[in-house]
Amino acid sequence: VVLVTLGAQGVWAAALPAARFLVVKGDVKLNGKPAAVNMEVPLNATLETAKDTECVITLEPGSAIEIQPNTQAKLQPSTRKRFSMKLLVGGIWSFLKGKEPSYEVETSSAIAGVRGTAFYVQSPKEDETYVCVCDGTVELAQGKQKPQSVNSPHYDHKGFRIGKKANEEFLEGTNRHDHTDERAAVMLKLLEETLH
């Protein structure tokens, strides 16, 4: 634990871990145990949320990632990015700011890699993924296909369904669902707090 001095009066406080919980409300678990605000989120951690929860983590300054209710995910390293969130079931809404964030969300049917943006990923069932490029650029990849860049300026919300039907892969446009501009404003505020 690193100790830092705050203010002229010499008040001591422990430095917060870079990867940590920003918001925890309801039944949120880290590696099977109850999570708490400012608790570290290490690599290879398993995150689980129950119904009616609120959970937001940061991985580094300039990131705010909402783990939706009824979600199971694992934070892991990958050969492509520094941070990879393996989404087993549920939804993750990611807000990232900075030069080149090294982060992706992976499901059984797709990989969404970020390039300074906001994007939402939902895995409602095996072999199907919903990705919304809310703002900025996301690289979408399906199976072993070459990644495809999708740009959505000014919160245009470009949605896609990705998956397999009868062993045939598909990637098709769809409407936005399960995330709102009002909630995005809250998440952007949390992201800014990670920078200070």
Please name the defining characteristics of this protein.
disordered N terminus, 14-stranded mixed β-sheet, mainly beta, 54% strand, 16 strands
Question: What does the model show?
Answer:
The chain has one helix and 16 strands. Strands 3, 4, 5, 6, 7, 8, 9, 10, 11, 12, 13, 14, 15 and 16 form a 14-stranded mixed β-sheet that branches. It is mainly beta. It has one helix spanning 181-194, and strands at residues 3-6, 11-14, 20-25, 28-30, 33-34, 46-49, 54-58, 63-67, 72-76, 83-96, 103-106, 111-125, 128-141, 148-152, 158-165, 168-174. The radius of gyration is 17 Å and the shape is globular. The protein is 7% helix and 54% strand.
Q: How confident overall, as mean pLDDT?
A: 85
Number of strands: 16
The helix/strand series, from N terminus to C terminus, equals: EEEEEEEEEEEEEEEEH
What is the rounded Rg? 17 Å
Largest sheet composition: 14 strands, mixed
SS-derived structural category: mainly beta
